[in-house]
């Protein structure tokens, strides 16, 4: 493990006012989104859509790293250029999703455990040979009556730490993604308490398994009320709750926190990130960045709809959303940007 390289890469991923683009949707997830827009659910259509993303003009102005799916990392542009090379040529660091998804946790109804550790050491070595410099693993925690349980939190935290240790052994920066899900009636305060408990447990396991904190990126949820909670706090209240939670649970050694969007609308995700940076940036030990998927991609996907004639307009929408989040990192995003 080259600690200096890990630390340098981790810092690069959250450097300046840029963030990460998550384009690592599994084939079933991608197909589901395509189906909703009448796009063919084929490997060819997925390849065309990923080419639209990686060839978006100026994307490297806003994005430091892109998280790919296994299928995507093996695909090429129409001219034969591998996507990894296209991304790297744009000044973007290529990364890879390595978990195999959240599966039902035996004995714990309503809870999930993320699988994929089997053979991970060998897969990470292969990905490194392909030019990948970081990886991502997601664990999910539903909030409800009696959940998440301690067992779910502890097991997923242990697995996240094991994944992170294997990544660093392979010379890859681990993106550690413990996501408290938005679905449910839970309040903002309940989300804050659950998120803090999850993060404290994750970092306890990272310490136990000797993971270099300076060489990882945390990808958490923002602290939000459940989607069906009657009280939906404003942008500033969300920023306060999220930052106070992170200050209590995330060590200062971590170089950056790159939020997931988790089903938020593109505009709300940008506004909430903006509020955090506007109000707290100068007082925080770590960078607050973004690692959005739908909150950057969805407007472009709705414009594209599988039609070659719509590629340019879709790319403009993608670049616009990435630019909005770049502004949010500086605390300079505002609603007027959505009308330009």
Pick out its properties:
single chain, 340 residues, alpha/beta, TIM Barrel, eight-stranded parallel sheet, two-stranded antiparallel sheet, 10 strands, 46% helix, globular
Structural account:
This protein is α/β, with parallel strands linked by helices and 340 residues long. It has one domain (3-339): Aldolase class I (TIM Barrel), CATH 3.20.20. It has twelve helices and ten strands. The protein has helices at 3-13, 27-36, 43-54, 70-73, 83-89, 120-129, 150-169, 188-208, 235-249, 266-280, 294-304, 311-330, and strands at residues 19-23, 63-68, 93-97, 102-104, 112-114, 134-141, 173-180, 217-218, 256-259, 287-292. The strands form two sheets. The chain has an eight-stranded parallel beta sheet. Strands 4-5 form a two-stranded antiparallel ribbon. The N and C termini lie far apart (46 Å). The model has no long low-confidence stretch (mean pLDDT 96).
The neighbouring-strand order within the major sheet is 8-7-6-3-2-1-10-9
Helix-and-strand structural type: alpha/beta
Cα radius of gyration in angstroms: 19 Å
CATH architecture classification name: Alpha-Beta Barrel
- Characterize the overall form: globular
**What is the rounded distance between the termini?**
46 Å
Outline the low-pLDDT stretches: none
CATH class: Alpha Beta
As a percent range, the share of helical residues equals 40-55%
């Amino acid at each position: 493990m080259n600690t200096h390289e890990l630390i340098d890469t981790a810092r690069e991923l959250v450097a300046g006012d840029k963030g990460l683009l998550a384009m690592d949707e599994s084939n079933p997830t991608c197909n589901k989104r395509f189906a909703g827009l009448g796009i063919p659910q084929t490997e060819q259509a997925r390849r065309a859509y990923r080419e639209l993303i990686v060839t978006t003009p100026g994307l490297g102005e806003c994005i430091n790293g892109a998280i790919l799916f296994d299928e995507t990392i093996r695909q090429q542009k129409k001219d034969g250029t591998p996507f990894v090379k296209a991304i790297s040529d744009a000044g973007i660091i290529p990364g890879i999703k390595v978990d195999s998804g959240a599966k039902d946790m035996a004995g714990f109804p309503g809870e999930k455990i993320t699988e994929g550790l089997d053979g991970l050491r060998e897969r990470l070595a292969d990905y490194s040979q392909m030019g990948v410099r970081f990886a991502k693993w997601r664990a999910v925690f539903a909030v409800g009556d009696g959940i998440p349980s301690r067992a779910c939190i502890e097991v997923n935290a242990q697995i996240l730490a094991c994944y992170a240790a294997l990544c660093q052994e392979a010379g890859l920066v681990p993106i550690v993604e413990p996501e408290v899900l938005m679905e449910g009636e839970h309040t903002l305060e309940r989300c804050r308490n659950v998120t803090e408990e999850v993060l404290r447990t994750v970092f306890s396991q990272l310490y136990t398994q000797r993971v270099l904190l300076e060489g990882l990126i945390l990808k958490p949820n923002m602290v939000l009320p459940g989607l069906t909670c009657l009280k939906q706090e404003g942008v500033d209240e969300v920023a306060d709750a999220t930052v106070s939670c992170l200050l209590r649970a995330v060590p200062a050694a971590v170089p950056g926190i790159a939020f997931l969007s988790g089903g938020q609308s593109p505009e709300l995700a940008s506004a909430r990130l903006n509020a955090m940076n506007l109000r707290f940036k100068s007082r925080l030990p770590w960078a607050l960045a973004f690692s959005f998927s739908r909150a950057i991609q969805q407007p472009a996907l709705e414009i594209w709809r599988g039609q070659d004639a719509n590629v340019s307009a879709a790319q403009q929408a993608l670049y616009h959303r990435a630019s909005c989040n770049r502004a949010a990192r500086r605390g300079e995003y505002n609603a007027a940007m959505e009308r330009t």
